[in-house]
Amino acid sequence: MEISQLRGFLAILDEGAIGRAAHKLDIAQPALSQSISRMEKSLGTVLFERSRRGAKPTAAALVMAQDIRNGLYLLDEAAHKAQQAQTGLSGTLRIGLVSSALFEVLPKVIAIIRQYAPGLQLVLKEMSNEEQVSALGEGALDVGLMHSPVAVSGLMNERVLRRDKLIAAVPSGLALKLKKKISLQQVAEQGLVLYPKDQLPHLYAGITQALRQAGYEVKINQHANRTMTVLACVAGGCGIGLLPNWIQTIDFPGVTFCPISDGDGLPSFDLLAIWSARSKFNLTKWFALV
């Protein structure tokens, strides 16, 4: 049996007459009548008792009706899911992210995707820049939320999601002695808690260069590869952390955040979304809304 025959069968059942069913389906009445006759012949049973008053379903038709409705519903659902997958509105979207994306950016991204593609399943993985670059190049991630600049193999799209100035994370005991702000000289005197050079080379170089150009010696007391670890080291008195200003949204015991009075020469801390230019997902539209 063909799907068109099954839809015709249900239309006659619902309308109670072949003529009205044909009108509903926008086909010729003789064509629908012949289609049902072929269906009856294939099944070896009569489905409708035809008369001038309409078409009355037989017991066989009534027994079949719900199974046919269920079957067509499942077929329609399968077709819809296939179409959604083709247009990137269903399936699985694998997102890699650095820890700073957890604050403000990721909640916005999730809300936008849920609005435009509620059937899309999200797989979220907190990863370093290097891990994301490797995973994107291998096709193990669909999109990376990471710090710039980075070089990912293949044809990629990118968008800046947030651009932050650096702010100083200062041990609270030291902050009490400051006048709300801290200078580069004071930062240099205390020494730094920084991300490792190979993790964020552009940021590392920008910070050390800014200090040297201001005439100060660069003293790195501790390396820490995660933002929360940087804060823990600062709270423990290891030195000053230079972090993006969104960090002020976190209340971390033992740490006070201070603007840098002469920090214009410091680099910005950018958060990017990077994804394959061949992605089936509508990421350009979604990230434009973040």
UniProtKB/TrEMBL annotation:
Keywords: DNA-binding, Transcription, Transcription regulation. Pfam families: HTH_1, LysR_substrate. Residues 1-58 form the HTH lysR-type domain. Gene3D superfamilies: Periplasmic binding protein-like II (3.40.190.10), Winged helix-like DNA-binding domain superfamily/Winged helix DNA-binding domain (1.10.10.10). GO terms for cellular component: protein-DNA complex. One of its GO terms (molecular function) is DNA binding. Belongs to the LysR transcriptional regulatory family. This is LysR family transcriptional regulator. It comes from Paralcaligenes ureilyticus. The lineage of its organism: Bacteria, Pseudomonadati, Pseudomonadota, Betaproteobacteria, Burkholderiales.
